[in-house]
Write a structure and sequence with these properties.
It is a single chain. The protein has about 230 residues and is α/β, with parallel strands linked by helices. About 30% of the residues lie in helices and about 25% in strands. It has seven helices and ten strands. Helix 6 links the parallel strand 7 and strand 8. The longest helix is centred in the last third of the chain and has 16 residues. It starts with 9 loop residues before the first strand and ends in a 7-residue tail after the last strand. This is Cell division ATP-binding protein FtsE. It comes from candidate division WS2 bacterium ADurb.Bin280. One of its GO terms (biological process) is cell division.
Length: about 230
């Protein structure tokens, strides 16, 4: 059993990842403890998105281990991956919403593919929409949403499985400052409810406002790891 006080919920050790002979991550060591909120920053090409893909086992490293809750996910069988990904909520810069489904239907679809009964879907969807401030927008289609609303639908869809880990890869990249701040507030709320959050972003203003643990990457390695002033705002 995972000892939450001592063992990381996310940990990489000695990870190396290459694309077409170019090293993206090299001897990469990184860890996050349960319940932390960590912001990952660094220039384009630093390896942030590559790390995210490794954490959801979209890709595998050439060397090293990637552990989630103590288990090396590089060794998972293909049939085990859906269970892993239901325990890791993830959103990206692009929304990837189903255009012919409403807000409600987009979120519900994530449960339907897991064969949950209608009664459970009807219980979960309104709760998660309320959590991301979308009550009243259930019947809107993606083309009727603002960028901030669309991203909040993505967050709701990722949260509907109640994951232990939530990863956001540049979630505010296409948003104005007000919408970005709203997304940040939702991520903080998620974290305060006990979910471990990893946010990868280029948004320096957002990083400065949030004042969390900030891990800086450069050329595939961690070059700085700092806890800022208002570390726990719950």
């Amino acid at each position: 059993m995972l000892d939450k006080e001592k063992q990381p919920i996310i940990e990489t050790e000695g990870v190396e990842k290459k694309y077409s002979g170019t090293t993206i991550l090299e001897d990469f060591d990184f860890k996050i403890m349960p319940g932390e909120f960590v912001i990952l920053v660094g220039p384009s090409g630093a390896g942030k998105s590559t790390l995210v893909r490794l954490l959801i086992r979209e890709e595998k490293p050439e060397k090293g281990s990637v552990r989630i809750a103590g288990r090396d996910i590089t060794r998972l069988k293909q049939y085990e991956l859906p269970f892993l990904r239901r325990n890791i909520g993830i959103v990206f810069q692009d929304y990837k919403l189903l255009p012919n489904k409403t807000v409600w239907e987009n979120v519900a679809f994530a449960l339907e593919v897991c064969d949950l009964p209608d009664s459970e879907i009807s219980r979960r969807v309104p709760k998660v929409l309320q959590a991301v401030n979308l009550t009243g927008r259930e019947n809107a289609y993606p083309n009727q949403l603002s960028g901030g609303e669309a991203q909040r639908v993505c967050i709701a869809r990722a949260l509907v499985h109640a994951p232990k880990i939530f990863i956001a890869d540049e979630p505010t990249g296409n948003l104005d400052p007000a919408a970005s701040r709203e997304i940040a507030d939702i991520l903080e709320k998620i974290n305060c409810q006990g979910t471990t959050v990893l946010l990868a972003t280029h948004d320096k203003e957002l990083v400065d406002q949030m004042r969390k643990r900030v891990v800086t990457m450069k050329k595939g390695q961690v070059v700085s790891d700092q806890k800022q002033g208002r570390y726990n705002s719950c």
